[in-house]
Amino acid sequence: MAEQRRVDPDPLELNQPEVGRPPGIFAQEGFKSSLIAVVSTVVVFGGGALLIVNSPNWPKVRDQYFSGEDFRASWPKVLDGFWVNLELFAYSTISIAIVALVVAVMRSFRGAAFFPLRALATIYTDIFRGIPLILLILLIGFGLPALDIGGVPRSATFWGIVALTLSYSAYTAEIYRSGIDAVPESQRSSARALGLTQWQSLRFAILPQAVRNVVPALMNTVVSLQKDVALISILGVREAVREAQIYTARTFNYTSYVVATLLFLAISIPLTRVVDWYTARDRRLRSQAPV
Amino acid sequence: MTAKLELINVHKSFGTTHVLNGIDLAVDEHEVVCLIGPSGCGKSTILRCVDLLDTIDEGHILLDGYDVSAKGVNPDEVRRRMGIVFQSYNLFPHLSVLDNVTLGPRRAHGVDKDAAEAHAMTLLDRFGLADKAEDYPNRMSGGQNQRAAVVRALMSDPEVLLLDEVTSALDPELVGEVLSVIRELAGAGMTMVLATHEMGFARDVANKVAFLHEGRVLEVAPPAELFANPQAERTQQFLQRVTEAGRL
Q1: pLDDT tens figures, A10-37
Q2: Number of domains, chain A
Q3: What ipTM does this complex have?
Q4: pLDDT digits (tens, 9 = 90+) for A110-133
Q5: Quick check: helix, strand or coil at residue A66?
Q6: Shortest Cα distance from A214 to chain B (angstroms)?
Q7: Cα R_g (chain B), whole angstroms
Q8: Using an 8 Å Cβ cutoff, are A282 and A215 in contact?
Q9: Domains of chain B (ranges plus CATH)?
Q10: Does the CB of B113 have a partner CB in chain A at under 8 Å?
């Protein structure tokens, strides 16, 4: 049939060259769109750069923020400080993960007998989600060591981690809880039907599924925590931002802030890439899984 | 002789909906009782209440003559003596079949890992699932999932097995494999209560069939009697509809 039709002086034949475009045109269109992408990028960013460089005070600002000499001079101290940031980040990540899970589990217990637990967890999240992090750091970081309770550390680092943990665990507990709520009720029924207690059902049947549900959301919280650790500088802890401030105060040059910025980016950008990669992979695996 | 399981005037409502309006039912040891009736008549709720997954508002549930629905009874203790299989299998998706079926014995009964796994392999083998032990539920067919769920319920050597429309979620060609499992259990003397839409199967395997309507047991009789000669008008209507639909 098709053979014959091609022989016929079919009006359709006139359209054929247009319908079946040769691949060369597609390649050209691909080239065209990448050309547009490159040109528009150059125009936007180049235009922005030109605007900055040609601004009346650019030479002054350049020396103030991007001085090579000051970069070298402030680098060692700021880097030393940044190690403190990473340390604080590591400790608070661990304590937040634990406290948040405890709070979320407390909120997930059913039955009248557990009302006090649920109420406590609810009050906890309400209060600590409601206070701006910077206020919490100031109140706890300066207030609690002043009490001078025996056996409790007085260091600003310790209380800074406590403040971060209180605030972040309140948020993170809600993330866990959304993961727990997303596990179908029937899973809880079948766990209880096996004779598992409420705690065992949560521990072995519900939580493993719940945590898997929220890993991307948890990882986003980690990225945000990595930066918020810098807020502890207001307690006088000599981490990267504090060191940068000290350098600035001495030299009236702000390059040290750029140093600190670059150090934070060096961690947060790869971390963000990992989160994106994991999220995409997780979505792909789940959509593939047959029911 | 006291019945293995007895429900006396059981009431249950969810909000303003009265699902169970005074259920009376007795199940003797080694007896298979099928609950039939239209959707929403309370079949699943009865099973959930017997397993104490839902608490009843009024009445009594007796296991070996002992009131397990009374206040102060530890529901975990009671559940360990019963097994329940749900319509949608409800296997744990993050655990392999072997871990699914050994979770209850290991955590709730304190059986050690090796003993639990040995017992599990015997049962999996009996139901043709030995080669699926390491597989995850989402990699298996519905029939395999449901058979694994039956094995999970059998792991604690339950005194009573509750089956809640266990074939309703299955493709037609997979129903047979699950029904043959139940038939085998019935032959082995397992005390069972089944909620089912499979009338042919109920007639075949049940010692007693209970017809439920609006939260009451309207009629209980051996299958030959109930299917051939239903007494209540509602039962007659229901069976006629089922027959017309070609399901009997």
Answers
A1: 444 444 444 445 555 555 668 888 899 9
A2: 1
A3: 0.88
A4: 888 899 999 999 999 999 999 999
A5: coil
A6: 15
A7: 18
A8: yes
A9: 5-244 (3.40.50.300)
A10: no
